[in-house]
Amino acid sequence: MRKPAFDEAGPLLEVRDLRVEGQSDDSWHEIVKGVSFDLKRGEVLGLIGESGAGKSTIGLASIGYVRPGCRIKSGQVRYKGIDLVSAPERHKRALWGAELAYVAQSAAAAFNPAHRLIEQCQEPAIIHGERSEKKLRDKIVGLFRKLSLPEPEEIGERYPHQLSGGQLQRVMTVMAMSCHPGLLIFDEPTTALDVTTQIEVLATIKQIVDEFGVAAIYITHDLAVVSQVADRIIVLRYGEIVEEASTRKMLAAPEAAYTKTLWAVRKLDKQENLAAKPILQLRDIDAGYGRSLKVLDQINLDVPRGRTVAVVGESGSGKSTLARTIMGLQPAFAGTIEFDGVALPFAFKQRSVPLHRRIQMIYQSPDTALNPRRRVRDILCRPLHRHLHLSAEARRQRVAELMSMVELNTRLLERLPSELSGGEKQRVCIARALAVEPELIICDEVTSALDQIVAEGVLKLLLRLQQQIGITYIFITHDLATVRAISDWIVVMHRGRIVEQGPKSQILTPPRHPYTELLFSSMPEMDPAWLPRVLQKRQTGGAAQGASVEMSI
Amino acid sequence: MIAEEKVMTISKAAGPAGTHWRRVWRHVRKAPLSAWIGIVIVLAYLVVALFAPWIAPHGETEVVGGQYDPWSDEFLLGTDQLGRDMLSRLIFGARNTISVALMTTSIAFVLGTGLGLLAATVGGWVDQLFSRLVDVIMAIPQLIFALLLLSIFGTSVVNLVLIIAVLDSTRLFRVSRSVALNITVLDFVEAARLQGEGTIWIMVREILPNILAPIIAEFGMRFCFVFLTIAALSFLGLGIQPPTADWGSMVRENATLINYGDITPLLPAGAIALLTIGVNFVVDWFLHITSGLKE
């Protein structure tokens, strides 16, 4: 395939007044409303914004691609002088993979599970005319080595399911790099990963950009992440550019009011207060799946009444199992659970109905936690009817009261969950949990599916409710800002054990347990110098420290 | 003040319901040609079935002419082997065949969906028991099994309906169980359990509304198959018994005419085929809409 004639002099990518429309209910709506920007060679541009801001659409449109159901209405996207909007399909196909590459959000879903990784990494190069398999193989293995994947010679022979999420994301970057493209699009490449894994991928991306001098567009909703890799940041909202500035300037002195609110979210900090009797006490709890697989090992935990206990850890550390064990969904094998001074049966079915009422749970994803076929009013009325036996009139009043407690308009009562936004849905979930006047609410990553501003609103709401009615929270999270915002007591979990626990002030300040240190130091900060600093620190003391973490746990 | 508020809530409650019907109407208006053909066919059959005594020129079992009279002005489609008017019997046949098929499918639907939901919701040994039972029933070819059971229990309409309903409910069981299993793992079902809701509530209020679309589509498909099974059984002489008019047995009774190049015996077969096509068009369209709604 012959490459078209490039203009090597001008900017690498010029996007001019780009307008993209999406189809819904038979009519076309503008999703991207006149966006213009330039990208120089070797530059990394960060696109940030909430969901629905048009980040991904812009990212895909910059390589001339639109999703089915969308179309480019007007504007130009010139890559090295070639307009990708008007270019015929076969020209674009010649560029995709070779000059323009895309790294998707979930590497696990983007790889074909039935083919070996090396075959999938070679494919773009073969499509674009590479004939020597030996040469290509060496090149891919070289890239594997460069991105410090383990066993670079053999890892390509494996299938996608044999690698971890972070490794897959790096292999996907190799795949994108196999033809040495001029422009890479990263679409939320670390969103699905743990913080400790995220840091590897971020390092990889930075390394690729520095070494090969490729230009990249990095799409994310996480400010701290984008500030690590981007030279310049564009803040988007409703498909329009709110603000554009260099990373340093953007972090130090954001101008637009909207950008400022984005920044403010990360500054929420709750005054620690621990003086309270425990409402829930866990002693030597073991729990797990089936008869033999132990996920929780010797858990001891006191939850003070009216306070918040934050449980942090990577995925697989057992934090969700802990929540399910307390709820009784995953009965403990051994130990004791005391709730309000009374022993709590392990299995949910053995607990009395009033006990069901007193402990409630809020889920991570409000999309699946609400029945899509029931209206908000029905969702809220049912527990009132069942647990509190209120009359129809009392229920109506209480529902209105609940809605005002979670700051929702009573107009929304007649809506179906699909007619609500993510934040509104999560508020309905909170209202449902509050409906039965519980004493303890377990919040399982309740803000991680929400945009930052929305998440801040939800956190503030939860804090206000705690002050007003003295509810106790167990807050499961992996986000440091959330921990800081809401907790009194912090529990750090790793591989089913509590590694360290203590008051917030103590856990958040060094010296800490090595694993806590590793976990907290991996949580990105809004400082462009953070990533190099952490990586350097890990390289000097890293190997020995990593080993000691493994040993001591 | 309170009254005013009440009025407001009522008017608000009416809003979404109104939009619901508007949405349905929009879908109907936008329906593709095939769906329109299907709707017209099904409606025509329903009208014929409901008003058979008024539409038919002669009685269902009335002997009005000679054996195998040809098509004429008096007997538009001729007469059958006993001299009964063919057209009238076709019209009454619609009534008998459709009502039996509808009854059978409904029983199969309630039975299969109910047990499928129960198996998916409760899980464990209940699920194992019903699933294995269904496997056993499905292991035996349906038509042969139906013939066997009919010859054991005798050929009455009630037996016919019950036997085919039970045999066909296995298919609905499998469909509803597998769709429901996808729903039972969602958080809102667990949330309902955590609120202390019972199994029945979870089955009927939480899961059923979410699997209704594929189940109704399956209902339509099953209706066609039941239709064909009954026709086949009638053709074999074990279905609806004479003198009741029924399309399947009408094909058999007049089969000899084929030898003389008369297409009359093919008419009841054609009636079956046309209704099957019509129902399938409607079901396809319904499936298309619901798959679009899911997004």
Automatic annotation (TrEMBL), chain A:
A single Pfam family it belongs to is: ABC_tran
Mode of membrane association: Peripheral membrane protein
Question: Can you give the residue ranges of the ABC transporter domain?
Answer: 13-263, 280-520
The top of its lineage is: Bacteria, Pseudomonadati, Pseudomonadota, Alphaproteobacteria, Rhodospirillales
Superkingdom as given in the UniProt entry: Bacteria
Sorted keywords for this record are:
ATP-binding, Cell inner membrane, Cell membrane, Membrane, Nucleotide-binding, Translocase, Transport
Q: What is the first-listed, main subcellular location in coarse terms?
A: membrane
Q: What InterPro entries does the record tag this protein with?
A: AAA+_ATPase, ABC_Ni/Peptide_Import, ABC_transporter-like_ATP-bd, ABC_transporter-like_CS, Oligopep_ABC_C, P-loop_NTPase
Recorded GO molecular functions are: ATP binding
UniProt-annotated location(s)? Cell inner membrane
- Which SMART domains does the entry mention? AAA (SM00382)
Instruction: Please give the family membership noted in the entry.
Output: Belongs to the ABC transporter superfamily.
Q: What is this protein called?
A: ABC transporter ATP-binding protein
Q: Which NCBIfam families match?
A: PRK10419.1 (NF007739)
UniProtKB/TrEMBL annotation, chain B:
PANTHER family registered for this protein in UniProt? OLIGOPEPTIDE TRANSPORT SYSTEM PERMEASE PROTEIN APPC, PEPTIDE ABC TRANSPORTER PERMEASE PROTEIN
- Report how it sits in the membrane: Multi-pass membrane protein
Using the record's annotation, list all stretches that form the ABC transmembrane type-1 domain: 94-287
The answer, when asked if Acetylation is one of the entry's keywords, is no
Q: What is a single Pfam family found in this protein's UniProt entry?
A: BPD_transp_1
Record's subcellular location? Cell membrane
Residue ranges spanning the membrane: these are 33-52, 98-123, 143-167, 219-240, 266-287
Whether Nucleus counts among this entry's keywords is no
Kindly provide the name given to this protein in its UniProt entry. ABC transporter permease
Keyword annotations for this protein? Answer: Cell membrane, Membrane, Transmembrane, Transmembrane helix, Transport
**Signal peptide, first to last residue:** none
* Homology family: Belongs to the binding-protein-dependent transport system permease family.
